[in-house]
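fold-stage: in
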Amino acid sequence: MGRDGDGNSAYGRKAFRRSKSHFADRITADGRDGWPVEAGRYRLVVSRACPWASRAVISRRLLGLEDALSMAIADPIQDDRSWRFTLDPDGRDPVLGIRYLSEAYDRRESGYPGGVSVPAIVDVPSGRLVTNDYQQITLDLATEWRALHRPGAPDLYPEGLRDEIDSVMAEVYEDVNNGVYRAGFATGQEEYEAACTGVFQRLEKLAARLERQRYLVGDTITEADIRLFTTLVRFDAVYHGHFKCNRWKLAENEVLWAYARDLFQTPGFGDTVDFDHIKRHYYQVHTGINPAGIVPLGPDAAGWLTPHHRERLSGRPFGDGTAPGPVCPAEEVPARGRP
């Protein structure tokens, strides 16, 4: 998520198309792209506001990669140079020493297309961007980084289920993850109605699937659940109002609301969510569709902590593994962002 600053006011005024990741190098166990997996070498740059980046935050925590892959958190409010490190002392990332993520992009390539997006992984020694391929980063964390996983890390992309996981994720991406954006940034009524209709048709199909099973694929949490969760957790806070995806609220769908709460209350999910960052980013940055920049007070996030009763469907959240430990103090979500 992210683009150069003058693009923020253009949302809702010109046709929306999601950019492909321009930098698609992979960090792999065998280093075949020139970037071998190595503890301490890379820095993951994220925004807690961004659903695409939040996938990587959740995966990193579930897999126990905190010590191997450090994390920088950008300010949820961008300026005309996009993501910035104004949450850090002196406005600089303490590891990379830069004020803007664009500086790491520039060290990799000048005049790159597609703007500055998160998640991004930067090579610390050179300060160069390695990848901003949000679709591939989490798959590689789950598979290529295995040697650095914590003991008891879950298998988020089990080999025997990959075809089904890929199929579910493709549908979720097209109609839900990206569908809410196509609705929110539509420039005409027909475009909006088609996207919004697609969002809710897919959500209803997912609800039917999740009525009889605790997780999307198999009986454990997989990459597919992570990708759906990052949209659902933002649904009532921003997509329902800001993006006009308002056929119904998530909290009004018994199955999806229980499923989302189940994940939220699972270590590694809700403890990475910052509702303050989420709301301020969408409502204050997208001036093309919210010119006044007013951030709504609601909805009350306390509902995320209410009982979900999904245990009756059995399922083993972490499979043969275990839950991650407590969040390290430096990465705890501030109180104002939590329910």
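fold-stage: in (second)
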Amino acid sequence: MSSRKPSKRITMMDVAKAAGCSQATVSVVLNNIMDIKISADLRARVVEAARSLGYGLASPIRRAALEELRDGCIGFIVDQLTTTPEAVNAIEGARQESWNADVTILVAQTQGRAEYERRAVDRLLRAGAQGIIYMSVFTRRVALDSAFNELPVPLVLLNCHTGDPRFPSVVPDEVNGGKLATSTLIEKGHRRIGIITGETFMEASQDRLIGYRKALGKAGIDYDDQLVGEGNWTPTAGYEATQRLLSLADRPTAIFCQNDKMAMGCFTAIRERGLSVPGDISVIGYDDDEIARHLRPQLTTIDLPHRAMGAWAVRHLGRQSGDVLPNTHKMVCGLIERSSVGPFVA
């Protein structure tokens, strides 16, 4: 089999198809989990399929960036690991990026507690970590504990940022994500567009709302605060906010939900009114949560690029050499087109 650079991102499912096994088996083999019994022949077949397809293959530029970390390990500190998929996706992106450079990732969950962070830093350094990625599940400005100021290894911030230019960071471009979601509805002819926000103290909610307003302004559509419903990221909040929007004398013809879970509640409220998606009301979500593919119709949404952010963080650990780098990189959030957005019908 030939080894060539892939023209698209290769996934574990692609490797599984090529090796003739399950995605779970691919995960076990590529993560070098040895306490699960898999035959040597099957392990070899999975590894060969991954190499042939270029799964996890880094470009020459990326290999050079990670060369100093080769055969070493990276510490990955995150406040919450199990409550949302964002941290898992970021870790998977980091793992894929580091795999071909023989870099191991050690993960510590700290629940955002300073004493746990200090303990994690100490243990990761004693384990030989040659760089540390610090992640917050919610995008926010962080005040780092003094333990991070005295690190003898590079530090990259993931999904969070600080004013210190010593620490490069990567966050989603939420303003343009909100603008893209709203523009998608405008391009379909909608001008009466509702929005259901997350908790308003959160950066993601604020920035997505800014993007919504920017898109309206660019299209010459007046902002109407009656079309803004405040939620808290849950299906119930999406349901209740949609009920209020549908009670308006001039109800919206489209709704932008700031996450996919609220869109799920939005769907329910629309159907309870005897209306259809997207026939009567178009709905767009945000995050590309697993549920987006299981709603009917399937939910058009904006991708939250945590896998790409995890890979970026690994690459920039390898690139640091004492030079001051640009402090915050904003990662593009892309449109995932499915079936919940349709044209405006008068």
